[in-house]
Amino acid sequence: MKPQPFKVAILGAGCIGTDLLMKIQRSIHLECVLVAGRNQASCGLRKALKMGYPTTDGGIAALVDKSHTFDLVFDATDAHSHQEHWNQLKPLRKLMVNLTPTQVGHMIAPSVNGNEILEHQNISLISCGGQASIPLVTALSSLFPSIPYIEVVTTAASPSVGRGTRLNLDEYIETTEMAISAFSRASQVKALVNLSPAKPPTTFRVAISMMTDGADLSAVKAAVTEAAAQVLSFVPGYHITACKTFESGQVFVAVEVKGRGDYLPPYAGNLDIINAAAIVVAERYAVNRTSPLMPTSELEL
Ligand SMILES: NC(=O)c1ccc[n+]([C@@H]2O[C@H](COP(=O)([O-])OP(=O)(O)OC[C@H]3O[C@@H](n4cnc5c(N)ncnc54)[C@H](OP(=O)(O)O)[C@@H]3O)[C@@H](O)[C@H]2O)c1
């Protein structure tokens, strides 16, 4: 018998929320039962309604009111709102996938520590730059006993970056740096972001520079290729565009992500890299919903 789809809700119907809705529509495990925003006239809520989904402009209050209809919420609002959303949904035993760069929730990069998903009730997906770089910096960190410095520069096309993202750019930097430090154990991490106004829009890309005591190019290439292949299994447009080592010990790796063109054209790989991770997390909960690994008593209450 076909299993019942896992019922989910989206909070925040901007660039991320709308692209996510289109990806949920393709999932055989997930069913979106509610899209919540705060302005019924917004493009995202009107689009969701047109696609046939129930919508509300009542924000978190409406989700709490209808909480019996879903198991999991994707928070695609902004970092300033997430803590309050979590405070309201946590006691209702809802699962949360946090797409805002808030240091709330257990940090997951699916190809690196996806095995930890079921142990947590709130999953933080860090940031788009974090999702693109963490699999690579984690793989590279296993090659070097110490890494004094990592710099990660993310470039996203301006039209793919909504107001919510722009409002939480400081949190983007802090959370991305904190996550890269945690996964790589580098002594110092710098994250930078460039919202490019270029026309035609620039494809989403991330450049990683890492200082080491001396790097062997073939070992670096092998580590990068293996890590990228794992991400490619759920983000089809993820590909390495440069992988170099220098006599100084510097390692340089660049990655580009072409999106599937769901909500925005393929240049907006920033939406795909984090939303593909969100789908992996939700589907993991969906297929394990009766697993002994996810008893209600072990949820983070
Ligand atoms: N765009 C990216 O590349 C990207 C990638 C990864 C992660 N993120 C993160 O995802 C989040 C959303 O980014 P975005 O680019 O999608 O921004 P966005 O287009 O501005 O979308 C945010 C949406 O959330 C709504 N919203 C904000 N606070 C709300 C609240 N308290 N209750 C209900 N709805 C609320 C906004 O409504 P209004 O229209 O009324 O303001 C807007 O529709 C940000 O935290 C961002 O850092 C973005």
Helix content: 25-40%
CATH topology of the largest domain: Rossmann fold
Shape descriptor reads globular
- Largest sheet, if any? 7 strands, parallel
Quaternary structure: single chain
Structural class: alpha/beta
Instruction: Note poorly predicted spans.
Output: 295-299
Ligands present: NADP nicotinamide-adenine-dinucleotide phosphate
CATH class of the largest domain: Alpha Beta
SS summary, helix count? 10
Beta-strand fraction estimate: 15-25%
CATH architecture of the largest domain: 3-Layer(aba) Sandwich
Short structural description:
The protein is an alpha/beta fold. The protein has two domains: 6-125 and 276-298, NAD(P)-binding Rossmann-like Domain (Rossmann fold), CATH 3.40.50.720; 128-269, Dihydrodipicolinate Reductase, domain 2, CATH 3.30.360. It has ten helices and twelve strands.
Description of the structure:
The protein is of the alpha/beta class and 301 residues long. The protein folds into 2 domains: 6-125 and 276-298, Rossmann fold, CATH 3.40.50.720; 128-269, Dihydrodipicolinate Reductase, domain 2, CATH 3.30.360.10. Helix content is 37%, strand content 23%. Strands 3-2-1-4-5-7-6 form a 7-stranded parallel β-sheet, with helices on both faces. Helix 1 packs parallel to helix 2, helix 1 crosses helix 10 (269-287) and helix 6 packs across helix 9. The two termini are 33 Å apart. Mean pLDDT is 95; it is low at 295-299. The structure holds NADP nicotinamide-adenine-dinucleotide phosphate. NADP nicotinamide-adenine-dinucleotide phosphate (NAP) binds at residues 11-17, 37-39, 42, 44, 59, 76-79, 81, 99-101, 127-128, 156, 160-165, 168, 172, 270-271, 274.
